[in-house]
Predict the structure.
Amino acid sequence: MQVSPPFPVFLPDIQPRNVPTALMEALQARFGPQFSSALVVREQHGRDESAFSVPPPDAVVFAQSTQDVSDAAKLAAQHKVPVIPFGVGSSLEGHLLAVQGGVSIDVSRMNQVLAIHAEDLTVTVQPGVTRSQLNAAIKSTGLFFPIDPGADATIGGMSATRASGTNAVRYGTMRENVLALEMVTASGEVIRTGTRAKKSSAGYDLTRLMVGSEGTLGILTEVTVKLYPLPESVMAATVSFNSLADAVNTTIQIIQLGVPIARCELLDANTIRMVNAHSKLTLREGAMLLMEFHGSPAGVKEQVETVQAIADEHGGQTFEWASSPEERTRLWTARHNAYFAGIQSRPGCKAITTDTCVPISHLADALLDSVLEAEQSGLTYFLVGHVGDGNFHMGYLIDPDQPQERELAETLNQQLVRRALKLGGTCTGEHGVGLHKMGFLVEETGAGAVAMMRAIKQALDPHNIMNPGNMFTL
Amino acid sequence: MQVSPPFPVFLPDIQPRNVPTALMEALQARFGPQFSSALVVREQHGRDESAFSVPPPDAVVFAQSTQDVSDAAKLAAQHKVPVIPFGVGSSLEGHLLAVQGGVSIDVSRMNQVLAIHAEDLTVTVQPGVTRSQLNAAIKSTGLFFPIDPGADATIGGMSATRASGTNAVRYGTMRENVLALEMVTASGEVIRTGTRAKKSSAGYDLTRLMVGSEGTLGILTEVTVKLYPLPESVMAATVSFNSLADAVNTTIQIIQLGVPIARCELLDANTIRMVNAHSKLTLREGAMLLMEFHGSPAGVKEQVETVQAIADEHGGQTFEWASSPEERTRLWTARHNAYFAGIQSRPGCKAITTDTCVPISHLADALLDSVLEAEQSGLTYFLVGHVGDGNFHMGYLIDPDQPQERELAETLNQQLVRRALKLGGTCTGEHGVGLHKMGFLVEETGAGAVAMMRAIKQALDPHNIMNPGNMFTL
């Protein structure tokens, strides 16, 4: 295995700032029982799904309204103390860790669905609404919100990380699906971006600047997203291949032919083994594609026929089809359990996850070599991919007490990301930069573009108190 | 007709800056025959399709490369002199007018298609490539670039104004279709934003910040956009209605049902009359919808059946259908000629155009009352709409020598835009802010959001030399 020197294993840049007693008292006075500095509460807001371990925030405010967020931000700004938004803590890249100390602003109680406009295919929610809660709330409208990153994340968190997931190949990501925002700025001011109109050329696209800004430019307090009519017909399928290359090349051809597939997910044989063990299944231990087709009955039939023909050409076998919701859920079990099956395949482990996305024609190059390197390293790993988008994840399972394992995982990750960048891809398809991808952000986009991002950050957050130490250091 | 006081007829804020002789000499020395200060050349670069008339730029540089743009920007920055990018001059809102003097940077000679990646459904072009040139260049790939704002605008200009047009209802706008950019900053530095990967969560979305920034943050020198497979089957249709309301309500129902219609355009009876006179046609003088359906033969058939049933319910008549390219072109004549038919219906006139977009359920409210006001005003007007998006334009035809006509047109425009804003819409769906919508931008998004835009502008262009006086005054 090649290791490209120099070898910078990432360590978070921990620079705790002292939180003045005056601020703690002011927050306590303003928020009463919505304020906590108890260690257990702080610790709960100081960890996520990443493998980083840093000291927890100094205090937590449980916001229940935009006014709460604004007041907390204003108080923090007076004392130049960091604020860090918190939803359900499902970040994979350390976004919500208090690397510079400060106050965690928990928006999970801001969980009202504010306005369902079925007639316009839009809905406005508070940031703490989760995607499953949103879909439950709109169930009677015949519409649905397609973005599904796996975790039952909040709409606020998904907006802040520009999340996507399984349905993005058909419906786009949060970038394409957030129409408008309300947010609290670094000074505590409340502003609105965008409207419910489907398109607009009115000024700078602040909505999309905020989507993916990872809490570093402001805190989202309302999100308006697009909805879609529930498809008349849905068909799900799984198909197994003799090689990973066959599964990947099937995917590439599906996309290049313009099939409007709604989901196109990959698990490798290794991950199928973990899923079989975890869920007591007997899936064929080969690379598997899991697909879903949305449309009219005739449209779905056409897609299915096209995809079946492509898969057949690549040796696809043990096709399974499902159209009822119950059957589809069963078919998707493997995919839904992959992450936890991976984690649980090695008790006590932590996962170092990767998240590259490449132009579809380079998917095989990017993916197959990275899997080969992982195999050769001896480290346990799992592989899941939103391959229809050219996006895939590997989880390297490390013993957190073995520094050399972390080092090995980071080396593999580094090789994988650099390969993706060389192929015209990105260092993160959907997880965000957080603490983990800061160096790669510069490699990907260049010092000039990162300097432009820093200039924007400094203009909008002059005291560097909005989730500082994430995305880049100032 | 109600006039809401106060009544601010917009006049561009003309603040010419002196262009130092030293800069003129330096540009002449660097660019030789690519530089011109001849009045006829300056005048050609000092007008667009808007009704504004301001003094032309002081000089024009014909850039042939990114290096040319960078060098011109660096020289201008040294002297703190404005630079204004110029494509083909098809702006409708005064974007390219030198309201503060300065140097027009004409990128129309930067017209190379740089990289066709048919295998990834992307293409990278220089900014001066026009949309028809792009589609000609990729013809053999079986792919097409759908964004069609009417004018044969440049891809650079379309990106800078976040343009869209007839196909946006299915394929999105430039916001959804630009993947990556190369640009020259206010200091003359060359940076890149985005990659060819379909999605990314890597840092601030500089690509979408630049798309729609109207030359005020930098000059685009390369644009990478998405392409789409040419649909297997295309069907176009026109249908006439007894009332505008029937046409609009048909549209609303098509969209609410989720029909993936590719084009859904409206002309009112008044505009049909102008088109008949201009193109010697005998179209029925009623509100007309022009539609296009893309997909597999079966998919198109389904869409057509659904839409026909909806139109029938609203009294649609004289359906005409076309599937061959020639027949489709004939059917679309009315739409393609509407703008010029409108202009030519009143010799010597100028058009004050509007461009609002509202949530689809409010389209009837927004459109019908605005048409009524125009009718009652006695001013000649035409109406065309990308109504599938909730977006429509009216062109008020004024005698430029009659100030009261301009005032009347601006009053109508003001009423129309304010109505759209009240209905949750935007002051510009696709034309941009330019000189004309600055006041409305504040009304739409609020002082706080515009202050945030200004802060970004000041951070990235501290000397205010990138197309200053457009979008907002600093």
